Every structure is written in C-alpha cells, then in structure tokens.
C-alpha cells in the first residue's frame, strides 16, 4: 500500500486510501473532524471541538458527570460557573473545557493560556507557534511550506527565485537561501 500524499493522522490501507485515526477526516486524514457537529450530538449541553477530539461541558446550574451527561445541581447553580462544575470532596470547583484554559481570578470564568509565550508549546525546527483559544498549533516558519516528503510532513524551504516571489531588480540575480533569498 502506497499513499503518494501520505496519511497525516491515519494509516495507508491501499493505493492512496487512508484510514483516519479517530477525530480526523479527509482524503489524507489531515483535517480535524468537528465531533460537535455530528448527529447524534456527543454532548448533552455544550460541546467544544479540540484538535483530534472534543470536550463536553454543562450549562450553568448543571454538573458534568463521568459519563459526559449533565446533572442538575443546586450547588453548581449557586457558584455560577461559566462551563459547569464538579464536586470534589464536598467542594464545588468550576471547570474549564480544555487544558489550554485556566480559571480566571474570579474562579468562575476561563481565560486562555498563551502556550506560545509561556514556553509550554514545543514546536519542531522550522515551525512557529500559533496560539488559539484553549490550545495552539505549529505552523511552518515564513519562507517554508508544508510538504509531504520521504513518508512524512516537513517544512521545506520555498525557492523564491523559482516561484517568482522574490523582489529582485530586473538587472539582479536571485540567489535562494534557507527560508529566504538574496
């Protein structure tokens, strides 16, 4: 089985046929599947799509149960959490639906953690970090593009001299460099 364009989040099953890992879709399994849009809906109240997965959370006044359902809770209603709550040893704690979010100073609302500026995000060589609400992703540095080579995705240098994206004078010669040109 060979897949010319590769299977980013899946495995090659036949000539250019990918079997995607759960949470991914597309011909080369390179797209995140938005589980929140599926029927039947995976969450009882609210759903937050994440990269390759999803998180459930409840409306105010409800508590997220281990099976993903929402149960009415008098204590939760009193705390007034943004994304529902859970009870731990008799204490009511507000929840945030993603590891990239943290409880704000009021203990009820969730604020974004910028993984790129805090150094929590590790992007490989030639990639830069892009923060999103509740998460982050790694994107190719400027002057590089994502290409499928040698059985995997890599950030490969763009030859600006060949693609005609350089700004050289008509009477100057273009010389490609890693990530740029002269």
From TrEMBL:
Residues 32-71, 112-150 form the EGF-like domain. GO terms for biological process: cell adhesion; cell differentiation. InterPro entries: EGF, EGF-like_Ca-bd_dom, EGF-type_Asp/Asn_hydroxyl_site, EGF_Ca-bd_CS, Growth_fac_rcpt_cys_sf, Nephronectin_domain, NOTCH1_EGF-like. Transmembrane segments: none annotated. SMART domains: EGF (SM00181), EGF_CA (SM00179). The keyword DNA repair does not apply. Keywords: Calcium, Cell adhesion, Developmental protein, Differentiation, Disulfide bond, EGF-like domain, Extracellular matrix, Repeat, Secreted, Signal. It is found in: Secreted, Extracellular space, Extracellular matrix. Gene3D superfamilies: Laminin (2.10.25.10). GO terms for molecular function: calcium ion binding. This is EGFL6 protein. Its main location: secreted. Belongs to the nephronectin family.
């Amino acid at each position: 089985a060979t897949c010319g364009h590769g299977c980013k989040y899946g495995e090659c099953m036949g000539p250019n046929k990918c079997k995607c890992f759960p949470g991914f879709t597309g011909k080369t399994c390179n797209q995140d599947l938005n589980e929140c849009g599926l029927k039947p809906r995976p969450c009882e109240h609210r759903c937050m799509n994440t990269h390759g997965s999803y998180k459930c959370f409840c409306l105010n006044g409800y508590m997220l149960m281990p099976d993903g359902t929402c149960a009415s809770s008098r204590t939760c209603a009193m705390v007034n959490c943004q994304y529902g709550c859970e009870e731990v040893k008799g204490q009511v704690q507000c929840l945030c639906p993603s590891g990239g979010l943290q409880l704000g100073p009021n203990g009820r609302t969730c604020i974004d953690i910028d993984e790129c500026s805090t150094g929590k995000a590790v992007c490989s060589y030639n990639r830069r970090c892009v923060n999103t609400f509740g998460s982050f992703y790694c994107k190719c540095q400027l002057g590089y593009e994502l290409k499928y080579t040698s059985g995997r995705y890599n950030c490969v240098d763009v030859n600006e001299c060949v693609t005609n994206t350089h700004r050289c004078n008509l009477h100057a010669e273009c010389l490609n460099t890693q990530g740029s040109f002269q």
